[in-house]
Amino acid sequence: MIPESLDGNNNPSFVLRSINDLAFEDRPKPVLQSPHDVLLEIGPFVVKEPMVLGHEASGTVIEIGKKVTSLKKGDRVAMEPGVSCRRCSACKRGTYNLCKEMAFAATPPYDGTLARFYALPEDLCYKLPEHVSLQEGAMLEPLSVAVHMVRQAKVRHGDSVVIFGAGPIGLLCCAVARAYGPWKVIAVDIQKERLAFAREFAASATFEYSGGTAEESAARLIEDNGLGEGADVAIDASGAASSIRTAIHVLRMGGSFVQGGMPHADVPFPMVEACTKELTVRGSFRYGPKDYDTALGMVATGAVDVKRLITKTVAFEEAEKAFYEVKEGKVIKLLIAGPSQGT
Ligand SMILES: [Zn+2]
Which residues form a coiled coil (predicted)? Predict the structure, then answer.
């Protein structure tokens, strides 16, 4: 249970004990493990499907380690929730998102950020300019996922870009891709309402997937949008097998495909098409160097308006109900206020 009133040290936390067993627990207040760490009082959390307990958050610095130089008490920051080992070959190659020793918030055995306090190294805290809210700061996590996906696709000025899946990540991919000055950004989904929102939010056109083979869907998508020999770039943010196959067929010769959505299992892949078109096929996993900086820049300059994706903010005590609303697809993204905040 959440204590009636918060003294200096309660750390009410929302935890997933086992599947469908969500509970509030009072966890110990974290102590700084390194002189480079800072202690944060958490602001709002973002909830999304699949149910990950609080890995998207922002907060206010309340204590700093002895060697912290870039932050001070009272700074408001967005939190990058994964701490890499910094020593392995993946880290040294500059791909720390691929670190096998990554301690990622809300991935067992690590606690999520859905608590009152959280300790994090200073270089994973991104100071928010005054005009950027904590709510927007909490949205930098999904935005960074989208930034990484669009970077992996190497979108260039004048490209035609097709994005499969108009959930939060797909929508953010549309917005990030727009910032690269493409010719067209086409959002694909099976839900009309999502496509209507995508068009209003960032897509220049939309395509409603309505069955048929991947070849047929791709041909119709190309025809409807005047893509000629095919799209330059296709990004999958859905993980759906039909989307992945359609994406391969929608690309032009020498086009580029990025898989960002996580399929539930391996999917049959049109490898002959990928081979004969000489496609560039890349995966995308979380975010790496400079992705958070880019995401913050896009929010700070107004290039991406993440506020529009937040359907509503609820109180910490309503976290459980909120998770189920997101799970049922009733809202796109929803923020949970920190234990010490109102809504
Ligand atoms: Zn590493």
Answer: none
The answer to whether position 58 is within a domain reads yes
State in Å: Cα 287 to ligand 1 middle: 14
The domain of 103 spans: 12-138+305-336
Residue 36: CB atoms within 10 A of its CB come to 18
Residue 33 sits at the vertex; the CA angle it makes with 141 and 143, to the nearest 5 degrees, is 5
Q: What angle do CA 147, 303, 77 make, to 5 degrees?
A: 70
Same domain for 21 and 90?
Answer: yes
**Domains: count for the chain:** 2
| CA of 101 relative to ligand 1 center, distance in Å | 6
pLDDT tens for the chain, residues 1 to 343 = 444 455 666 766 655 555 556 666 667 788 888 999 999 888 766 554 433 445 668 899 999 999 999 999 999 999 998 899 999 999 999 999 999 999 876 665 566 666 678 889 999 999 999 999 988 998 999 999 999 999 999 999 999 999 999 999 999 999 999 999 999 999 999 999 999 999 999 999 999 998 899 999 999 999 999 999 999 999 999 999 999 999 999 999 999 999 999 998 899 999 999 999 999 999 999 999 999 999 999 999 999 999 888 766 666 666 667 666 666 665 566 566 666 654 4
Alpha carbon of 213 to ligand 1 centroid (Å): 42
CATH code, domain with 58:
3.90.180.10
Distance from the alpha carbon of residue 14 to the mean position of ligand 1, in angstroms:
28
Q: Does residue 7 lie within any of the structural domains?
A: no
What b/e sequence results for 225-240 when a residue is b if at least 16 CB atoms lie within 10 Å of its CB, and e otherwise? bebeebbbbbbbbbbb
Closest CA to 125 of 215, 182, 166, 64: 64
Is the same domain home to 173 and 113? no
* C-alpha 107 – ligand 1 centre gap (Å): 16
CA of 97 to the centre of ligand 1 (A): 8
